[in-house]
Specification:
Four Helix Bundle (Hemerythrin (Met), subunit A); mainly alpha; Phopholipid_MeTrfase; transmembrane; 2 strands
């Protein structure tokens, strides 16, 4: 868990650890939630190309690097490149928002959401709720949560590494996923034109 010396108060330290636990629990929930559905659906395409494991690796790596950069094992010039103290609160808010967005996105898709890139016979293109504006809000939530952890710890190198790694990994995943969706849903090209990939009005 987080080092208490990195926070302004015991309350901040406690909230950060609760949010970190919520992040991990939410990912475990999503894993079992999607696993139970995958076994009950007949798949017509499972072109994942290992991207599921790439995202798992990114999750673990980003959490490790966030804590490693603020630990005593990190070189002094990395450990001391920090943001002002109030960024701890901003980071924790971002974690909470990210978790909520990801869970909401998963529950909106229901049966259509899977950790593997796959298409089932009964699957339909979902364009309501968050998906009316953003095509991959579950990934948006995950990126925000991971960035929130590094921001809460206020370490600049960690924030940059997490941002770059998350963007690259999720971009690879999205490329694979959208190629499959483009193949099986005729209206997907038009849907892409009307929506943003990850962040509304930005990207």
């Amino acid at each position: 868990m987080g080092d208490m010396t990195k926070f302004n108060s015991a309350i901040e330290y406690y909230i950060f650890n609760v949010l970190l636990m919520c992040l991990l629990i939410s990912e475990i929930f999503i894993f079992f939630y999607t696993r139970s559905k995958q076994n009950r659906t007949e798949k017509i395409d499972t072109r994942d190309l290992g991207t599921k494991w790439l995202l798992y690796l990114n999750l673990v790596f980003c959490l490790i690097i966030s804590f490693l950069c603020v630990s005593q094992k990190a070189p002094f010039y990395i450990r001391e490149l920090t943001l002002p103290a109030y960024f701890a609160k901003i980071g924790m808010l971002i974690i909470a928002v990210g978790i909520c967005i990801r869970i909401k996105a998963v529950l909106t898709l229901k049966k259509a959401f899977t950790l593997n890139v796959q298409i089932s016979k009964e699957q339909q293109l979902i364009t309501n709720g968050m998906y009316k504006l953003v095509r991959h809000p579950a990934y948006t939530g995950s990126i925000l949560s991971l960035l929130g952890v590094s921001i809460a710890l206020k370490n600049i190198p960690a924030i940059l590494i997490v941002a770059i790694c998350s963007f690259v990994c999720y971009q690879i995943r999205i490329n694979v996923e959208e190629a499959v969706l483009q193949k099986y849903f005729k209206g997907y090209s038009l849907y892409r034109e009307k929506t943003y990939k990850l962040f509304p009005y930005i990207y």
